Amino acid sequence: MESVVQVRSEKVQNLQQGPVILRTRLKVWFITICAIILIWTGVVQLWHLRLLSGFTRLTKLSVCVDETMQSLPPLLPPRNYTSNGFLQVSCNGGLTQMRAAICDMVTVARLLNLTLVVPQLDKSSFWADPSDFEDIFDVRHFIDSLRDEVLIIKRLPKKFGRRYGYHPLVMPPVSWSSDMYYLQQILPLFSKHKVINFNRTDTRLANNGIPLELQNFHALKFTPKIEALGRKLVHILQQRVPYPYLVEVGRLFPKGPRLKERITTLLNMSIYAFPWWKEKEIVSDEKRSQGLCPLTPEEAALVLQALSIEKDMQIYIASGDIYGSEQRLTALRTAFPKIVKKEMLLDPEELQQFQNHTSQMAALDFIVSTASNIFIPSYDGNMAKLVEGHRRYRGYKKTIQLDRKTLVRLLDLLQNRTLSWDESSAAVQQSHEERIGQPARQRVIEDKPKEEDYFYANPHECLV
């Protein structure tokens, strides 16, 4: 009898515990399913962010792409790594030369697992511009947009300051160096010095062939005040009649033996002031015959006419002060009356904040140059090369890359009447049919990176 009662009691307990066990199991299943949903949601979001970021690891151009008129991708999680030391950089040159240098130095910091200090800008060379990094570029955006690649700080920790008796190693890295140079020769120096200051940064990284994982997009963004005024310039040009406009960039040099002699003297004096500048004597006629001189205003007018640029086309001159002032533009303005500069399109008060800041003024020209419907550089300097690369990145916008060596020969033949206008014009057009900024593979020369196609002018591997 007791055993029967006990069995019945156990059955009653089991019946009573059944709903409890069921609820417990349901709760466990519910928690498990929720966890799985959350995990997959996180995975999908991370994957989606990678897509939105534009495939962040493409090439070292990444940090150099300006986002003046583009939406920006969401920020990625910070990269977690052990820093091998602090890298300071002092960028030399003008705006575009410093931009390219910053791109290279971010790549070096990423390669060596370094902490990068916000770059210092050149204030004492030809440009003599007192602007700091934060006067031209958005510092917060620079730091945040690269946080999944490199830790960037605004200044060194106090313990590495000079007031505490610490002196960093100051050196210029070897020009056009590969990743192995930095891994084998530079990285070991950080174990001893902790802080290294690269005091010259132009063309210090190999032109091409850098590992594809060392990259990121959209890091260099102009300050809001520069962007706003740049957008206003573009809007003004687009509202003018006729709408189509081209940009002519580079300092237009005058003709005449006295003026050429004066310019040569000034250049030679400047070059002697910089001991690392190897070429001390410049022979202008020789340089011109090799296509290494900017076009004169007279030559520019003839070339634009030969390329069938219409007389009423708006032409924006993207440069600083022109040698000989406005009178030197007489020939060009006669051929193309609708020539404008930023000083003609904006109120003096709007430009006043940028006066005596050549890099900030150049930033305005850079914005207009990348947005124009046609871009024709009269000289292939740093400005022209970076603009060309940005225009390729933005859909291969038409960029006529002048073959100045051929042009000088044709112009001389035209001047001495060996060629007629129709013959020279046809030759100019034929020689530039394949020089309009269309997709093209980079010319790579083994062990001669300096002679290769310049990466920032043709970032081919980033665009295919």
Automatic annotation (TrEMBL):
Pathway: Glycan metabolism. This is O-fucosyltransferase family protein. Its main location: membrane. It is found in: Membrane. One of its GO terms (biological process) is fucose metabolic process. Keywords: Carbohydrate metabolism, Fucose metabolism, Glycoprotein, Glycosyltransferase, Membrane, Signal-anchor, Transferase, Transmembrane, Transmembrane helix. Belongs to the glycosyltransferase GT106 family. The lineage of its organism: Eukaryota, Viridiplantae, Streptophyta, Embryophyta, Tracheophyta.
